[in-house]
Amino acid sequence: MKAVKIVFILSITCGWLSSAAQGIENPEEIKSLFSKENEIKGFGGVDINITDVYQERSLLLGAYGGAIINKHVMFGLAGYGISTENQFQGESGTMLNIEGGYGGLYLGGILFPNEVVHLTIPVLFGAGAFHIVDKQYFPTSFDKEYVLESTAFFVVKPSAQLEVNITQFLRVGVGATYRLIKGSDLRDISDDDLTSWGGTFSIRLGRF
User: Fold this and answer.
1) What percent of the chain shows pLDDT beyond 70?
2) Pick the residue with more confidence: 84 or 29?
3) What is the pTM for the complete model shown?
4) What keywords are annotated for this sequence in UniProt (predicted)?
5) Which of left, alpha, beta for 183 (phi over 0: left; psi -120 to 50: alpha)?
6) Which end of the chain has the least Cβ crowding within 10 Å, N or C?
7) Which CATH number do you get for residue 147?
C-alpha cells in the first residue's frame, strides 16, 4: 500500500513538472513565473471531496482561488472543512464527533489546457485542526457541546482530475485525491486514521 502511495505522489509531481515545462520555448532562456512575458489570469472554484475521516465516510467542502500562469501553472490558496456528521464511539460508549478542516497553498499543473478534456494536477500544502466534540456533554444546558480534544496538523493533498471545458469561463472536473496528515496529537486517533484516499468533483470559474 505504501508503494502505491509513493507512486501516486511521484506521478503527480512529474505531471506537474511536465505541464510547467510545456510553456518553455527556448530551454536555454532563464524564465520566471512572474514576468511581463507571462500570461496571468485569475480563477476560483469549489471542491466536493468524498473521503474517509477515521473510518467514517465523509463529505468535505472546499473553495480555492488564485492565478493561472501561461495556461499551465496554477498558484493560489484553498481551504476545506468537514460538512458531515462524523461520529464514532468513545471509550465510555458515548458517541463523539470529529469536526475541523484544513487549508493552505494551492499549486497545480494543467496538461493540454486547450483540449475539451484535459488533466489537472493540483496539490495542497498546508495545515489544519480537528476537534473531538461531545455534543451531549451538558444534557440540561442550551449549549450541550464540549470540545474534549483538539489537535493541529500538517497536510499534503495531491489530486489528479480529468477536467472538461464547458465554456470559455467554466470547467468541471472529477478525479482522485490522497490526503496525507502528519503531526496530529489525539489520544486514540493516529495520523494514519486521518489519512485517506478520496474522490473529488470540482467546478472552476475564471479567465482561461
Assistant:
1) 80
2) 84
3) 0.81
4) Signal
5) left
6) N
7) 2.40.160.20
